[in-house]
């Protein structure tokens, strides 16, 4: 595990470290704000986001585009879920009253899913 390995290194030492890390066959966890360094040495990226870890089987150079895709997909899913909840609530209020208990359960389940997301 390397935590900010380039912080106090000069450029030739960083280049040496990059070469050494690229040659190693071991798995490494590298935490760094040095984007150039991460792009040169990584071949997989783990993103810790809102209590969830997500893995990208490509280096850090592909991370930002992938992250934007993930966030956009989540936003679309949240929008769809919101619309479904609106439909369920409308149905619950104005639908068949004999089914009110089931309708209430369905809306509760949808709301619980929204809260988990």
TrEMBL record:
Task: Give the highest taxon in the source lineage.
Answer: Bacteria
Q: Where is the signal peptide?
A: none
Which InterPro entries would you find in this protein's record? ABCF_ATPase, P-loop_NTPase
Q: Indicate the segments annotated as coiled coil, or none if absent.
A: none
Name the PANTHER family on file: ABC TRANSPORTER ATP-BINDING SUBUNIT, ABC TRANSPORTER DOMAIN-CONTAINING PROTEIN
The entry's protein name is ABC transporter family protein
């Amino acid at each position: 595990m390397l935590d900010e390995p380039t912080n106090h290194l000069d450029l030739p030492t960083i280049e040496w470290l990059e070469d050494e890390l690229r040659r190693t066959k071991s798995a490494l966890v590298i935490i760094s704000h040095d984007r150039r360094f991460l792009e040169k040495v990584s071949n997989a990226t783990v993103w810790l986001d809102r209590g969830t870890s997500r893995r990208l089987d490509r280096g850090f150079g592909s991370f930002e585009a992938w992250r934007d895709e993930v966030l956009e997909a989540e936003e679309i899913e949240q929008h769809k879920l919101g619309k479904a909840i609106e439909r369920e609530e409308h149905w619950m209020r104005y639908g068949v009253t004999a089914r009110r208990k089931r309708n209430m359960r369905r809306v509760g389940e949808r709301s619980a899913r929204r809260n988990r997301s």
